[in-house]
Structure formats: C-alpha cells, structure tokens
Write a structure and sequence with these properties.
Elements lengths: L20 E5 L5 E6 L7 H14 L5 E3 L6 H12 L24 E3 H5 L10 H8 L13 H6 L3 H25 L5 H17 L5 H8 L7 H16 L7 H23 L1
Helix pairs in contact: 1-2, 4-6, 6-7, 6-8
Length: 269
C-alpha cells in the first residue's frame, strides 16, 4: 500500500538533461524568444555546454525558474560535473552576492521560493496550480514523472514541447510576480501577456506545443472589471423600456443641442 510520500519521480541525481528550453526576456519583461538547446539532437553533454556557455555569453543574466533551486540548477550543475564542463563563474564565491546564494536573486529568482518565503510554507499544487491562478494552462498532456517513458519511446521532441509549455507557464507567473514585487503594474502585465500571446500565435504552426497551449489558454481579468461589468449588466436588466412621451422627446432634443453647442465652442477655440 502506497502512502502520500510515494512518487514515481526519479531523483535528480539519477537524471541527465535531455531537454532544456529557455525563454529570453527583455529588461522591460517582454518575451523575446524561446529556444530548445541542441534541438533536434538533444545531446546531454552539448545541452550542458550550451547552457553554461550561453549564460556567460549573455553577460550572466538572471535565471528565473519555478523550483529551480531544488531541481533545474542542481541537474545542470551535476551535468557539468559529469561531463567535465567548467562553470567557474557560477560557482564564484562572492559572499552574499554569490550566484548560488539562496537569498540573493541577482543571479537566480526561484518563483517557488518567492511565493513560499524560502520554504516557510509549502507550495502544494506547484507550477500547475500557480499557473492556473493566472488562468494559464498549467500541466496538460504530459507530467514530469512521465518523461522517462517518453524518453524510452524516443519521443524527444514531445519532451521538448512539454518543456516549452512549462517555460511559458513560468514566464506568465514571473510577470505576475513582478507585479507582486512592485517592479511593474498590473496593466502593463496584461499588455505583456497579450504581446506574448501574439508571439505564440505567430509561431503556432512551428510547434505543436504552442497550438496546444493556445487551445488551453484563458484570459485573466481584473476582479474589479468583473464587478463593474456585473453591476452594469444588472442595472441594464432593471432599466424599464423608454416610452415615446413628449417629455422624453424634449429631453433628447435638449441633450443634442447642448452637445452641439459644446462642440461649437471647442471648434471656435
């Protein structure tokens, strides 16, 4: 009989990177590109080399992950160890600002750490739940503990597609986190989300993952806007139909004259 701690997920120490997908994000938080390293070959040692050399080439940008401190980055560190690849700048000892320091986000922002106050609380539901809080798909056809079977069946592209969807979820969670941290506004976030949606739509014919993601897409709406729309709809349903009485006709004519008069004043300067 299994208990609630049983899982079929393989510990990271027994894993190698077979698909690493990275979103490139501009300083204004807009989505630039999404790339799958060493696609379509998916060679673990090449993926690892590209991962660490790319980080250096782009000027050591901030990694943004969800549970990356406990999973993604340890896998890539161990892969570098396994394949004899230097990641000296990542392992640099610079006191509090060291890239691997848990409590500095300059090199790595783990969104799960942010939302749980560095593990003070549990994030039950994980990436799947948090993505759905902002109305994004979350986990769809494939889950992490099913990747091994996909790999055994040679479905590497499908695994890469799964990673693309995870990256998109992470990106949209990141945008909301930036609102939470006061680094952008909710209105700007909503604009960035729509821009990203257009980016995905333009590339939907290049990846089944993008098509599936769009099919499961939902738009997040401000609770305030929903309240206003609901109140407006309720008010309209309660408004009695107007009758063609002389008083109504006179009021309408008066309003038209007032509007024309105001427009005339504006045009006259």
């Amino acid at each position: 009989m299994s208990n609630k701690t049983d899982t079929t997920f393989i510990p990271y120490t027994y894993q190698i990177p077979i698909s690493v997908v990275i979103a490139k994000v501009a300083q204004d938080f807009s989505l630039i590109d999404i790339v799958s390293l060493d696609e379509p070959h998916f060679r673990p040692h090449v993926i690892t080399e590209h991962f660490w050399r790319g980080w250096e080439m782009y000027g050591k940008p901030q990694w943004v992950t969800f549970n990356g401190r406990s999973f993604d980055l340890p896998i890539m560190e161990l892969a570098a160890f396994r394949y004899g690849i230097s990641a000296a700048k990542w392992f640099k000892n610079d006191g509090y600002r060291s890239p691997r320091n848990r409590f500095t986000t300059e090199a790595h922002l783990d969104l799960q750490e942010l939302l749980t106050n560095y593990g003070a609380a549990r994030c039950n539901g994980g990436l799947n739940l948090v993505a759905q809080l902002v109305k994004k798909p979350g986990k769809m056809d494939l889950r992490g503990d099913q990747v091994q079977q996909q790999y055994d069946e040679g479905k590497l592209t499908e695994i890469s597609d799964y990673c693309r969807c995870d990256v998109l979820d992470t990106y949209f969670i990141f945008l909301r986190a930036m609102v939470l941290m006061g680094k952008t506004t909710i209105d700007n976030e909503m604009q960035l989300v729509q821009q990203a949606k257009q980016w995905i739509q333009q590339r939907a014919d290049t990846s089944e993952a993008y098509t599936a993601y769009l099919n499961a897409w939902r738009d997040w709406e401000k609770p305030q806007d929903k309240t206003v729309e609901k109140a407006k709809a309720s008010s309209e349903s309660e408004t009695p139909e107007s009758s063609d009485t002389p008083e109504t006709s006179e009021a309408t004519e008066s309003s038209e004259v007032t509007a024309a008069g105001e427009a005339g004043k504006t045009n006259d300067g």
